[in-house]
Specification:
The complex is a heterodimer. Chain A is mainly alpha-helical. Chain A has one domain. Chain A contains seven helices and no strands. By secondary structure, chain B is α+β, with helices and mostly antiparallel strands. Helices cover 33% and strands 26% of the residues of chain B. The chains are: A mainly alpha, B alpha+beta. At the A-B interface, α1, α3, α4 and α6 of A face α1 and α2 of B.
């Protein structure tokens, strides 16, 4: 697959991740379930940043973050910076991360999403917003839980389209 | 002597790029938080991501459509019956309001005071919720093309929802009254005690802070918009006082208010186009009552929404 085709594939999966983030919960579900939404876009960014074909660089991650900022009504540049740092870190540590067993990869995903949530919480929460505390870590937990599924799905796509992982 | 292959390869270009992007993010954050200069950029980005909300809403729209298609005749007849009863009850109430309004206008005229203008309303549907539980916003399916503008109040059947903060061509964002950055001027119905209802970041709670400790306010009091500040029309229900307690200093009181509106449940909302500040009756009478508005809102005769 050509470099541009791989880039298109990466951006289509990012679009799907943005759609998963944009979907709202049914109105009769409790509000706190919104905190359990995994960080779909961040997980997809990290996967593509680690891929050997390099379909998504730091700039791509930054642009995806800017779109997420607009969607999440967050200060412009906040998630862009977080996604760019995450992509850079994933790229630099990719050889080590790829060697990790799945459980350890989930732990790394948890740490990454938790760190991003902490920064977001500080950026939004001056003065502190409710609910605070451990609920803030809920997206990190669910992101770690869905990482095997995200990885398997994107790997399957890579295999189908013969993308160099 | 040939140099060996370095053990640790540094991707310096990515490092420089990251530094530049972080600098760019910091500048964006500083400008966005301190000024309004990034409004056009945000508007452009909002336009870019607005279709995502509509696409994400498709499963609900499809489910609703399928539900309507396969609904049994019996269920539809029951629903029509309920709506007819509800319509009858509301019509009865509206007649009472019309009489009261006429009486109110008459009294105002006798006092040589001004009359209040009615507000027109536009029905909008919620099509999305930003994926950020820390921000209390909704995305609705009406935008600048329908006459929606920044600052317009939004209500549901039970009370005040919030106000428009961002508008694109076909959608708009509503900041809910419970958002931590929101505040609305209110008054207590029982004694017209004025205060500010601030958002707490929780959908079930607003706070009236800085009340004198001797304020005549108690649980059960109804709180409505006061109309001060000109942003929200007067008289829309905001909530009910749940508790009153001294604050940390002991010198002032804090009242907790439960919002009237179904902030997390409402699907259909009304965007209120306030007729602006109270004007002289002569000015009002000079205007054509049934003339369609240029801003796309229905004429005041056809769909006036009066504060309850």
């Amino acid at each position: 697959m050509s470099t541009w085709s791989v880039r298109w594939l990466a951006w289509i999966t990012l679009l799907a991740a943005l759609l998963l983030s944009a979907g709202r919960l049914p109105t009769d579900w409790p509000d706190w379930l919104a905190w359990l939404r995994p960080a779909w876009v961040l997980l997809a960014v990290c996967f593509w940043a680690m891929a050997k074909a390099r379909p998504l660089g730091v700039l791509g991650a930054w642009l995806a973050g800017l779109c997420f900022d607009a969607m999440a009504a967050a200060p412009l540049g906040l998630n862009a910076a977080l996604f760019a740092i995450a992509a850079y870190a994933a790229r630099q540590l990719r050889q080590r991360l790829r060697m990790y067993p799945l459980a350890q990869q989930c732990a790394a995903a948890f740490a990454l999403v938790a760190a991003c949530e902490a920064v977001r919480h500080v950026a939004h929460g001056l003065p502190p917003i409710e609910p605070s505390g451990l609920l803030m870590l809920a997206p990190a937990l669910t992101s770690a839980a869905v990482w095997p599924v995200v990885r398997a799905g994107l790997r399957g796509l890579c295999r189908y389209f013969r993308v160099d992982q | 002597m040939r140099a060996g292959k370095p053990l640790f390869v540094r991707d310096s270009r990515a490092g420089y790029l990251l530094t530049g992007l972080l600098l760019g993010s910091a500048i964006l954050l500083a400008i966005d938080s301190a000024t309004q200069r990034l409004k056009p950029v945000r508007g452009f980005m909002d336009n870019l991501v607005a279709p995502l909300f509509v696409i994400a809403e498709l499963p609900y729209m499809t489910a609703a459509s399928v539900g309507e298609t396969v609904a049994s005749r019996r269920a539809l007849l029951d629903r029509i019956g309920q709506l007819e009863q509800s319509n009858l009850a509301l019509s009865h109430q509206a007649q009472g309001f019309l009489a009261l309004q006429a009486e109110n206008d008459q009294l105002r005229r006798l006092l040589g005071s001004d009359v209040r203008l009615a507000s027109a309303a536009l029905i909008a549907e919620v099509v999305g919720v930003p994926p950020n539980p820390a921000v209390h916003q909704l995305v609705i399916d009406k935008g600048a093309g329908n006459g929606v503008g920044i600052g317009q109040a939004v209500v549901d059947a039970a009370g005040l929802i919030g106000q428009i903060v961002d508008v694109t061509a076909f959608s708009a964002r509503v900041l809910l009254i419970t958002d931590a950055s929101h505040a609305v001027p209110v008054e207590v119905v029982r004694n017209s005690l004025r205060s500010i209802a601030g958002g707490t970041g929780r959908l079930d709670r607003l706070l009236l802070e800085g009340l004198p400790i001797t304020s005549d306010i108690s649980p059960g009091d109804q709180v409505v918009t006061s109309g001060l500040g000109g942003r929200f029309p007067r008289g829309y229900p905001v909530g009910t006082v749940e508790s009153v307690a001294p604050d940390a200093s002991g010198a002032l009181a804090v009242a907790e208010v439960a919002p009237s509106a179904r902030l997390d449940r409402a699907r259909h909302l009304l965007v209120i186009h306030s007729a602006g500040p109270v004007r002289d009756r002569d000015d009002v009478e000079e205007e054509g009552a049934g003339e369609p508005r240029r801003d796309g809102f229905p004429s005041s005769q056809s769909s006036d929404v009066e504060p309850p």
